Amino acid sequence: MSGSARGFGLAATTPATVIRAAAAAAEEHGYRTFWVNDTPDGDGLAALAQAATATERIGLGVGVIPLSRRTPESIVEQVRRLGLPLDRLRLGVGSGSGPGALRRVRQGIRALREALPAELVVAALGPRMCRLAGAEADAVLFNWLTPEHARVSAGWLQEGADQAGRPRPKLYAYVRVAIGPAAIQRLEQEAGRYERIPGYSEHFARMGVSARQTAIAVERPEELPAALQPWDGVLDELVVRAITAADTEEQVLELVRAAAPSNPY
């Protein structure tokens, strides 16, 4: 990979007006995909439906729906009910919480593949889930990691693909980006929350870094392109996961412009 395409991501709890504006701006500025997360208080698929109304060609990703909270059948039903464009959909799922994570993801991906002709993405942190993603998914979504560890994780993914006799899935990663003191403070608060989650705590220990060290924080927009350079060529697509002071349209669009890819499609 001589370079990486770029996506842009927001929290699904971001106001719908901002989601529509950000998705339209991301499409205009040459991003390949637009992403939202999925949480109990932020419905990722519903947020993507808002983005779909404001765009025509950009890929639409949800990263990710926990399979411990949603069944594949309920996901399929909602995708169809919302009329999400399947040719643009990047449907991300993760294990969520509880025992049986690998089996839950394997069965979930297979059920979704039978029902929906969309790109299926698996969230993976450790070696076993990366190998499973390599064997089963169309793409993997990494999260809270360094460029160096992304290369290690890609190796695990390749092992799974090789064992299954299939091509390596695409590499996506959420990379949290903040501009300015207020956004950086919010980024640090989010990093602290993730460090208290057991699975992520193990992930950071495995890498030997803090959550904050995996993110990008700059004081001014013009500093961002250089800060993103260490990721060049590491992934198939880097997803700029926006952290702003208050998720206002002005703040989000500033970040869309500052992180825009240099070579639009």
From TrEMBL:
<dbReference type="InterPro" id="IPR011251">
    <property type="entry name" value="Luciferase-like_dom"/>
</dbReference>
<keyword id="KW-0560">Oxidoreductase</keyword>
<feature type="domain" description="Luciferase-like">
    <location>
        <begin position="15"/>
        <end position="105"/>
    </location>
</feature>
<protein>
    <submittedName>
        <fullName>LLM class flavin-dependent oxidoreductase</fullName>
    </submittedName>
</protein>
<feature type="domain" description="Luciferase-like">
    <location>
        <begin position="116"/>
        <end position="259"/>
    </location>
</feature>
<dbReference type="Pfam" id="PF00296">
    <property type="entry name" value="Bac_luciferase"/>
</dbReference>
<dbReference type="GO" id="GO:0016705">
    <property type="term" value="F:oxidoreductase activity, acting on paired donors, with incorporation or reduction of molecular oxygen"/>
</dbReference>
<dbReference type="InterPro" id="IPR050564">
    <property type="entry name" value="F420-G6PD/mer"/>
</dbReference>
<dbReference type="InterPro" id="IPR036661">
    <property type="entry name" value="Luciferase-like_sf"/>
</dbReference>
